[in-house]
## 1
Amino acid sequence: MNDSTPASTEYAGLVTRGVALVIDAVVIDLIAVVLGAAVHIIVTALGGSGSLNLVGALAGGFAWLLWSGAYFVAFWTVTGQTPGGRLMRIRVVGPGGRVGFVRALRRFGGLVLCTVTLGLGFLPVLFDERRRGLHDRLAGTVVRWDDVPSGPQADAESRSAPGAESGPAGSPSTATAVRVAG
């Protein structure tokens, strides 16, 4: 990588990742509400009271956590992108490019820790050279712009080809713009 280009230009920042997470939360919650309403209709149709007690609330919360975990782990494992990540053009990658099942589980566990601590686990994204939060560090992942190649070969190529990096949406990096203009 060229010394005049910040190393973090290929990594997505806090705001982009936050917007992607909000989009994913909306998708998760909409599906959960629809399924919860369907369960309520079925229970009341079968003669249930339809009222919510502590056990029902805890079961619903546990089901929501399982659903959220399945959503993130499945998308990270299969494509490296959730729907929110796809809309924001970012991708989660592991050391070899793909995120395996166990790594995705660790990342989701870290995401839960980040959330339980009221977002403190996301703060390292602001200061880390590779813009990694607690969940990224626990899983050994990074979040890159989707149009930036990933994997060991891409890392080697980007380090050996000065000015070859690009930022979001394929815009040339500062080093490339200076070289072209200069």
## 2
Amino acid sequence: MTNDLAGHIASLMQRTSATSLREIDDLILALRKRREELLRESDRVRREIIEYAALSQSTVQSTRIIAESLANFNKVPDAPSISAQHLEDVSSEGDERRSGENVRSLSGDPEIPDAARTPASEAP
């Protein structure tokens, strides 16, 4: 009976240890897969950080160029300005033209120039 009991215990230990070893092997396999995933993700994040840094540096350089261009733009001498008197003269000419057009449109036939019109007192 001692032999049977010893054989039974050995068989039980073997099954238990086989199950435990299989579980440990499965865990090791899952951990290796997870490690590979983490390494791939780490590489992807590293590439994205490098890409972001390059884009950021490019943005800073572009901003610096634009700022320098604007600073130089402000240093360029202004174009000759139009004097206030000239603006008043131009405005007056426009007012005179518009008032002449209004007189023609109020006086009747727009095809007859003002100089060709005869006053009503001189009409035959």
## 3
Amino acid sequence: MGLFNFNKKTEKTQTEFIQTKKEFGNEVGGFNFDTNYSKPIQEPYKSSRGYLYGVNGMFPYELNHLYNQSPLHSAIINFKTLLTAGNGLVGIGLENLDTKQKIEFNQLMVQFSAIENEIAMDYFIHSRFALKVTWNADNTKVLKVERFGPDTVRVNDLDNQMQPVNYIYCWDWNNPSKYGTTIYPKFDQQNKKEKVQILMYQATSPTKKIYVEPSYISCLNWVQLDAQMSEYHRANIQNSLNPSMLIQFFERPGLPEEKQAILDGLNNSFAGAKKTGRAMVTFSDGKELAPEVTQMEPNKLDATFLQLTDTIQRQICYAHSIDPQLLGLKTPGSLGNSGELEYAYNIFNQAIIQPAQKQIERVLNQLVMINGLGVKIKFVDVEIVLPSDTTKMTEEESEVEMSADEQIVVNEHLKGMTGRQTQGLLRIVRQYQQGKLTKEQAKMMVQASFGLTDDQVSLFIK
């Protein structure tokens, strides 16, 4: 009675309500985060704003939002993007180009380098990416390549085969009246009239209609749960009452000061970590006036949510075709040794990363081929040093042939590199010495990956 004083009249206080901020304007109605993603998302419906994907055409925005809100989902997307495009692109066959062609190729490479990570991320979030391509006067060469976010581009018209004829673009579909819309034709070299076109790549999928669904669509409900878990726990901590003990007095203190003195005495004697385990002693005039002490049971939801968190993590990993061990998540029954990690990484790299690289390379090489350069570009693989590789790398690195004087000069250049960069550099040198790379390929890879000058490269590649 002294703690809560339930018998006293209380003044009415204003209730504070948390108002959810609208993500988008009323013009398109926004999107609903309570979507059940186990149901079909798209239907071939044409509106004045193109063919819509999801409610009000906002499903691509939902995918971007879930990427920003789910920690595990975004970590997997970032990991995939890093492995795919983290080391950038390199040209193969540049020794056959004359000076003019090399300048033209470098101009394209500068543009590709500016968007390579973004289109890789678009590929993994949306399973598609869009490029705005600008032609020269007679449509014989590509002059400019820019990236359009998949959330900004919609199919506008379809032919009889349900294939896109043109696309409609808006910088922000939440407010098209403010930002305006622009219609671009699909990428077609034979279309001599239109100098700016949209090249849209979509991954293959058995469920593809007008738009391809993301490869991880089976786990979107779990991604949504992961995104909401932190908000739930934050609200639970802020809004819950979590006392550990209830002390009920059966005699009302005569004065407010007496009540406060009792509360202060309890806090001073028993509150805090250092006072844990102290004996509590009470005095009263008779048993009926003795205070009643009740131990409050703690909230047991934490164990339930730990189990739910584990399920969420594994379902998201499985939908992304990645072994949880690669993200530092323990797997029941797994020893977690280096051999398992290496095996899991090799499968992930061969099944997910390499096919993604080939698809993006194919699109970009199409543009290089149109310009008649006769070379190809490819991604430089990111080397992940697993525990099992440490000893092997040390032994292989010792196989790089250099004289004592050369080794001193080389060591000076290696001082500013990280251990991973050093291993990657020496791996290229080793592959060149073993005949797996030509001299031009090795030089280009070293220059593109580490930014060394020709003189510095000559210390490694001879």
